[in-house]
Amino acid sequence: MSTSLDLSKLSLMDALDLAKLIEMEACHRYQMFASQLGRSGGYDAGAFFATMAENEAKHGQELEARRKALFGDAPARLTLDDLYDVEAPDMGAPRRGMSTMQAFEVGLAAEQKAYDFYDMALAGIDNADVRALFTELRDEEAEHVEMLREGMAKLPSSANTEVEFDIDETPYL
After folding, report:
1. Which CATH architecture has domain 9-156?
2. Strand extents, DSSP E, the chain
3. How far, in Å, CA of 54 to CA of 69, rounded?
4. What pLDDT is attached to residue 114?
5. pLDDT tens-place string over residues 139-157
6. E runs forming strands in 74-170
7. Bridge partner list, 83
8. Three-state DSSP class for 134?
9. Which residues of 102-122 are buried (b: 16+ CB within 10 A; e: fewer)?
């Protein structure tokens, strides 16, 4: 996980843009995973990744609305090039046949990574508004971690079973 930014110099607008970009990066990665894995019909790894993509997109849209309410159409100074893998799951995480439980574990690791990012960033942030935003975002990531843990606990035992596939019918990852 990294950013090429000096987080201590972020304005509130920049911090909101960064948070939105973090959600966008994660959304795009989950969409890619869902596309790569496809779906077997039930709630499988591909379906889980599609759901995570929707959740990340929704959170990004909420951050965008908040930014627009505060700063109107002021142009963003940050782009996706300013960060890499802050919340997005690891590129090599999906694999053909992975179980739903394994997909949940990928999501859990990504949410924990985002929590760790905001938690570590707080130490270097003096701007009270940015500090309050990052504290809020860190706490939301902690809620996401807990929700995924609760979801994992409710999965049926079959969620631990890897999916069998026919090599002739499964797209390459």
Report:
1. Up-down Bundle (1.20)
2. 2-3, 83-84
3. 23
4. 93
5. 999 999 999 999 999 988 8
6. 83-84
7. 3
8. helix
9. bbbbbbbebbbbbbebbbebe
If DSSP codes are grouped into helix, strand and coil, which group holds residue 7? helix
CA distance 163 to 95: 10
Q: How far is CA 4 from CA 47, 74, 94, in A?
A: 33, 22, 27
Structure tokens at 48: 């889980």
Instruction: Please state, in angstroms and rounded to a whole number, the distance separating the CA atoms of residues 165 and 46.
Output: 14
> Which backbone phi and psi does 52 adopt, to 5 degrees?
-65, -40
Q: How is residue 85 written in tokens?
A: 């893998």
pTM of the model: 0.86
3 DSSP β-pair partners: 83
DSSP state letter for 169: T
Q: Which two tokens stand for residue 160?
A: 């631990």
**How is residue 37 annotated by DSSP?**
H
Residue 96 has phi, psi (to 5 degrees) of -55, 135
